[in-house]
Write a structure and sequence with these properties.
The chain is α/β, with parallel strands linked by helices. The chain has helices spanning about 30-45, 60-70, 85-100, 115-120, 140-145, 170-180, 235-245, 245-250, 255-270, 270-300, 325-330, 360-379, and strands at about 15, 80-85, 105-110, 125-130, 135, 150-155, 185-190, 215-220, 230-235, 310-315, 335, 340, 350-355. Helices cover about 40% and strands about 15% of the residues. It binds pyridoxal-5'-phosphate. Pyridoxal-5'-phosphate (PLP) binds near residues 156, 161 and 219.
């Protein structure tokens, strides 16, 4: 039986679990949180512990706007931002406000498997649209639009989970045009946008919101700490206004007032940007270690594209090989990974598997790839 892990559990001693799409513990920086928290507490005023403004504390949204301006290379405005509890909550929230049960949602095929449950919780009809190495395929979307009328298109445009593929800028613009002509919202999960290890990805959807049909979701989970449960929505003023009518905000104010102060200091003290540089350097080494190891022991058996960012390798198995069957045997090799079928909204993609390189140092990555090679050789 497949071993399951809770979010806080470290893999059992000796196990290499490439299924974990989380930063490794030494990349969760207690010193940064300590410095930012101390600076905040030093300056804190009683109202900093109140509910906070609906869209988020203006000092935070201004600091975030400046951070996004530097990271995305396009001017971001604080009025285009609102605080969330990270992208999982933001997606749930967007579904609450902008969909109703029975509506259709387009997702990429493959897409982030845990998003399926969030969408299903809202009674949405999930339709998967195939993607390729260049991201979403406009012709496929047009075909699907002849049959369906989606309320939203959920996309992971940069370094998609699980494929690592990135949608080109031209396709992003074509998708925006389609969203206008067919009246649906683009919900862009940009959780990996800042984690690029070679060249910059195309412009973030967060910087392309003029159409009034784009909601970009960003998160501190992959760039600082998932435990902060802090993220943001970047969108056009009318959509932000609509989102702020959310009953939860009406009752509870800013979705994460306290933690947003800590993040504000992490940004203002330059700690967040230094940490991003550290993450990019560290993850780049892990990508290259995994790519080299795969090439040397599985280069003739599997095919893949080396990811340019994000957390994942997406591997194609030879014809007739089934990743679910391999996964069932992997425990006896003290190995974990995610079979491709988990990322399919149609129960397909059985001859793919996803390896995450975010959790392990290079030696463990090499060791784990050796185990995978043995598992595949033993069939
Ligand atoms: C595509 C994608 N979206 C969202 C999340 C979770 O984001 P958050 O921690 O901000 O809820 C993940 C984490 O694996 C992810 O890969």
């Amino acid at each position: 039986m497949t071993k399951t892990l809770t979010f806080d559990e470290t893999p059992p001693e000796g196990t290499i679990n490439f299924g974990l799409g989380q930063p490794s513990p030494e990349l969760l920086s207690v010193p940064i949180i300590k410095k930012a928290s101390e600076a905040f507490i030093q300056d804190a005023r009683p109202l900093d512990l109140n509910y906070g403004s609906a869209a988020g504390d203006p000092r935070f949204t201004h600091a975030l706007a400046e951070f996004l301006t530097r990271e995305y290379g396009v001017k971001a405005d604080a009025s285009s931002l609102m605080v969330t509890n990270g992208n999982s909550q933001a997606l749930d929230f967007v579904c609450t406000i902008f969909t109703k049960p029975g509506d259709t949602v387009f997702v990429e095929e493959p897409s982030y498997f845990l998003a399926f449950k969030i969408l299903a919780d809202h009674g949405l009809n999930i339709v998967g649209i195939p993607i390729d190495e260049d991201g979403i395929i406009i012709e496929e979307i047009k075909k699907a639009l002849e049959i369906h009328k989606p309320s939203i298109f959920y996309t992971i445009p940069s370094f998609n989970n699980p494929t690592g593929y990135t949608t080109s800028e031209a396709r992003r613009r074509e998708l925006i045009a389609l969203s206008q002509s067919h009246d649906f919202l683009i919900v862009a999960d940009e959780v990996y946008q800042m984690l690029s290890y070679y060249e910059d990805p195309p412009m973030a959807f967060g910087s392309m919101t003029e159409s009034g049909t784009v909601i970009s979701m960003g998160s501190f989970s992959k760039i600082l700490s998932p435990g902060m449960r802090l993220g943001w929505i970047q969108s056009s003023p009318s959509l932000i206004q609509k989102a702020l009518e959310y009953g939860v905000i009406n009752s509870g104010g800013s979705l994460n007032h306290y933690t947003s102060h800590i993040a504000r200091y992490a940004i203002e003290l330059g700690l967040q940007e230094d940490h991003l540089v550290h993450l990019r350097t560290t993850f780049k080494k892990r990508v290259e270690a995994m790519d080299d190891a795969l090439t040397s022991v599985l280069g003739d058996t599997l095919s893949w594209q080396r990811p340019k960012g994000g957390y994942f390798f997406w591997l194609t198995l030879p014809d007739g090989m089934d990743a679910d069957e391999l996964r069932a045997k992997a425990d006896s090799y003290d190995l974990g990974f995610q079979p491709g079928s988990r990322f399919s909204s149609r129960g397909k993609l059985k001859h793919f598997l996803r390896l995450s390189f975010s959790y392990y140092w290079e030696d463990d990555i090499r060791d784990g790839v050796e185990r995978l090679s043995k598992l595949i050789a033993d069939g």
